[in-house]
Amino acid sequence: MKKRIAITAAAAIFAAAALLYLYFTGEGEGAGIPCMFHQITGLYCSGCGSSRALRSILHFDFYQALRYNAIFTVGLPLLAAYFGALLVSYIRFGKDKISEKIPQWVIYFFIAIALIYGILRNIPAFSFLAPITL
Ligand SMILES: [Zn+2]
User: Fold this and answer.
1) What percent of the chain has pLDDT above 70?
2) C-alpha 27 to ligand 1 mean position (Å)
3) Which structural domain range is residue 88 located in?
4) Centre of ligand 1 from the C-alpha of residue 39, in Å
5) Residue 134 falls inside a structural domain
């Protein structure tokens, strides 16, 4: 139990350090974590703009966060709840009892949504989904 709490605390400290880094780094293009897919192909993946969106959320600028990456901004509460439940499950039971309770179709549904979002944001008619550049 102590080992699990120590690992969880280390993960929380790492996450807090990452959030602090994002909070204090600059804004705009090149401010976030670079995307290898975008650098190689020039196309936007589903995650492009996520670090800038998270930075905007940390500054309570939710409109800007939506403009950087809408799916990340909308999905963040779900992700946070999922990882929070995973941590609690890990501390209490030493293993992941959450993932096995989620039906597989739910996972496939979210993967499909992310893929569709990634495709749409590269089509000119849906350019409003692409991460804005400052
Ligand atoms: Zn990307």
Assistant:
1) 94
2) 17
3) 2-129
4) 8
5) no
Å from CA of 131 to ligand 1 middle? 10
Q: 15-25 burial string, b = 16+ CB within 10 Å, else e? A: eeeeeeebeee
Q: Is the pLDDT of residue 28 over 70?
A: no
Q: What is the pLDDT of residue 66?
A: 95
pLDDT digits (tens, 9 = 90+) for 83-117: 888 888 888 888 888 888 888 999 999 999 999 99
Ligand 1 mean position, distance from CA 41 (Å):
10
Does residue 83 belong to any structural domain of this protein? yes
Q: Distance from the CA of 59 to the center of ligand 1, in angstroms?
A: 22
User: How much distance in Å is there from the Cα of 72 to the middle of ligand 1?
Assistant: 12
Q: Is the pLDDT of residue 29 over 60?
A: no
Dump the DSSP string for 11-35: HHHHHHHHHHHHHHS--STTSSPPP
> Count of domains in the chain?
1
SS3 (DSSP) at 44: coil
